[in-house]
Design brief:
Elements (H helix, E strand, L loop, with lengths): L8 H5 L11 H4 L12 H8 L9 H4 L7 H9 L3 H8 L6 H7 L21 H14 L15 E5 L3 H12 L3 E5 L8 H4 L8 H13 L3 E3 L10 H6 L4 E4 L5 E2 L12 E3 H9 L18 E5 L3 H12 L4 E6 L10 H9 L3 E4 L1 E8 L5 E14 L5 E5 L5 E4 L2 E4 L3 E2 L3 H4 L26 E3 L2 H4 L4 H19 L7 H10 L1
Parallel strand pairs: 1-2, 1-4, 2-3, 4-16, 6-14, 7-8, 7-14, 8-9
Antiparallel strand pairs: 5-15, 10-11, 11-12, 11-13
Length: 488
């Protein structure tokens, strides 16, 4: 049979980006099933054929976990889907998760050469497709593990940073144990992200893959309470990674904030996601379902909260955000899905006071209109209140999604572990080593609330340094650093 002719770059650029099939908005607001249904094999191959296979691809540098993007996309174009999944897993143990929740439009896709005149290659869609194909066709393979090094590693927290570090360290021959405070592993992936955006079966499958790599997972085990970091060292662990995340909710500290019906996004989403309150009474976790729900914030957590409220029966589900749409940190796709689902947006708006009834339940929220001033430390224009512009929004439920801070438990029980003024663990960013020898950290516990893929990237950096530390090598491979610099 004659070999199939390769497309020219001109022909590739004439192929339109494939749109992800999704549930219709009027259907999905009544269920918690995943919104996008994924590409078909034909769509995936067509999308993959849009890749120009650049001689110096910028997309790899745009990926925090260093996936060889052109190589895996090339395999997809040839119909070698399982091989493509294995190519991704050479550097990323969580492709089904990253393909769903990572902000590719700000990272790998943002630097795609096609963006100069066209839409970027849908790298995230393709990553999701091949990961799902491999799992659904029972073609997941376990790479051959190296001989055991005899070294033991403790990972505190099973979010994306901890899972990535655990996978990489296991593939280096170390004995890895993850200690998770909750009763299910996954961290923010399991308690923070709704089923309609990241099905929990996907997280369970990715964790199952790690277990097949030899990683042990100990759930319902709170380090800092049951035992400390120092006690782990006494038990024979050779190095420790802290990936406990930023699970302490932030509040605005305005009048009336302690009224009933006002929740942190952490509590609201944990009840719905981890405890399956959305399926009450099948799951024995009640959740309050407001009719007039306001969610404060403009990030992914705010979008998750407001879309959850809509599915739980809110007649009016509203985002209240103090900046404009252009400054919203949420993924473009999540904002688009929210708009399709009838979510209301009150932008350049900030709450200043809550009022409740005689039973202590919130009934209204006083807000003030804002205008944008000069850029602040985040690079975004600072919101400035407009005097005399106050107005009232009727509410019976408010979800506060304006950020989180680090869980302080491990820091408080680990002498000599330095933190910054926000309580985040300070590390050498080249190695993720903390002020305590042999103790590394990464993810939101270091950066504050950020993305899944940045946390995974930190776990990867830490794993490399931890391996070198335990093997008695310099923490930084100078030759490798020089190669990275020359690649830039």
């Amino acid at each position: 049979m004659a070999e199939k002719r390769k497309l020219t770059n001109k022909e590739r650029m004439q192929i339109s980006r494939q749109a992800m099939p999704c549930q219709a908005p009027e259907e999905r607001i009544n269920n918690f099933k995943e919104v996008p249904s994924g590409l078909t094999p034909e769509m995936a191959m067509r999308e993959a054929n849009r890749c120009l296979a650049c001689p110096k691809p910028k997309c790899i540098a745009g990926c925090p976990v260093e996936v060889d993007i052109p190589a895996f996309i090339g395999l997809v174009a040839e119909g070698k889907f399982s091989e493509a999944a294995r190519k991704i897993k050479e550097t990323n143990a969580l492709p089904a998760i990253c393909g769903r929740v990572c902000p590719q439009d700000e990272q790998c896709e943002a630097v795609c050469v096609l963006t100069k005149k066209h839409e970027s290659v849908a790298i995230g869609y393709l990553e999701r497709f091949v990961a799902d194909w491999e799992r659904e066709h029972d073609e997941v393979t376990i790479p051959k593990l190296p001989p055991p090094t005899g070294k033991k590693v403790a990972i505190i927290g099973s979010g994306p940073a901890g899972l990535t570090a655990a996978a990489d360290l296991s593939l280096m021959g170390h004995k890895v144990t993850i200690f998770e405070a909750l009763h299910k592993p996954g961290g923010v992936l399991i308690y923070g992200i709704p089923e309609f955006r990241l099905p929990k079966s996907i997280v369970a499958a990715e964790v199952g893959y790690l277990k097949k790599l030899g990683v042990e997972v100990v759930a319902s085990y709170v380090i800092g309470k049951i035992e400390t970091v120092d006690e782990l060292f006494e038990e024979g662990y050779d190095s420790i990674f802290i990936g406990t995340g930023a699970g302490l909710p932030s509040f605005m500290r305005i009048e009336g904030e302690n009224l009933k019906g006002i929740y942190s996004a952490n509590e609201y989403l944990t009840r719905s996601n981890l405890m399956r309150a959305y399926a009450f009474p099948d799951y024995d976790t009640p959740i309050f379902s407001g009719k007039n729900v306001a969610v404060l914030g403009g990030g992914n957590t705010a979008m998750d909260s407001v879309r959850t409220a809509k599915r739980l029966g809110a007649e009016h589900a509203t985002i209240v955000y103090r900046r404009s749409r252009a400054e919203m940190p949420a993924r473009t796709e999540e904002i688009h899905h929210a708009e399709e689902e009838g979510i209301e947006f009150k932008l350049l708006t900030n709450p200043v006071k809550y009022t409740g009834n005689e039973d202590g339940w919130v009934t209204q929220m006083e807000c003030i209109r804002m205008e944008l001033g000069e850029p602040d430390s985040s690079g975004r224009r600072r919101p400035v209140p407009i005097d005399g512009s106050n107005f009232i929004i009727p509410v019976d439920m408010v979800v506060i999604a304006v950020g989180n801070s680090s869980n302080p438990l491990v820091q408080q029980t680990t002498p000599g572990l330095e933190t910054n003024r926000w309580g985040n663990i300070t590390v050498d960013e080249r190695t993720m080593m903390s002020s305590r020898e042999g103790v590394f950290a990464g993810g939101d516990i270091v950066t504050g609330g950020a993305t899944v893929i940045l946390a995974a990237g930190a776990g990867k950096v830490a794993a490399r340094a931890m391996h070198r530390y335990m093997m008695g090598l310099p923490l930084i491979d100078e030759e490798e650093e020089e190669e990275k610099e020359s690649d830039k």
